[in-house]
Amino acid sequence: MPRTIRRPTADAHQNAVIIETNEIARYLQELLGQKLVAHMVGVSEWSRRVTG
């Protein structure tokens, strides 16, 4: 069977599409703040920070 050579862009794409929703939420909260992220997703405010 031929060996597949992975490219960095393919690896980055694979990592992007398999990331968990709670990881995305945690990252956005850290980057933008809890209130702004809550507003973006359409809730009045999250009662707690997302933890993984």
Written account of the structure:
The chain is an all-alpha fold. It has a domain at 8-41. The protein is 60% helix and 0% strand. It contains 3 helices and no strands. It has helices at residues 8-18, 21-32, 34-41. Helix 2 crosses helix 3. The protein is rod-shaped. It starts with 7 loop residues before the first helix and ends in an 11-residue tail after the last helix. The model has no long low-confidence stretch (mean pLDDT 77).
Characterize this entry briefly:
This protein has helices spanning 8-18, 21-32, 34-41. By secondary structure, the protein is mainly alpha-helical.
**Overall pLDDT:** 77
Assign an overall shape: rod-shaped
Given helix and strand content, the structural type is: mainly alpha
Strand segment tally: 0
Strand portion, in percent? under 5%
Number of contiguous helices: 3
N-end to C-end Cα span: 39 Å
The low-confidence runs, each spanning 5 or more residues with pLDDT under 50, are none
* Biggest sheet overview: none
Q: Into which percent range does the helicity of residues fall?
A: 55-70%
Order of helices and strands: HHH
* Radius of gyration, CA atoms, in whole angstroms: 16 Å
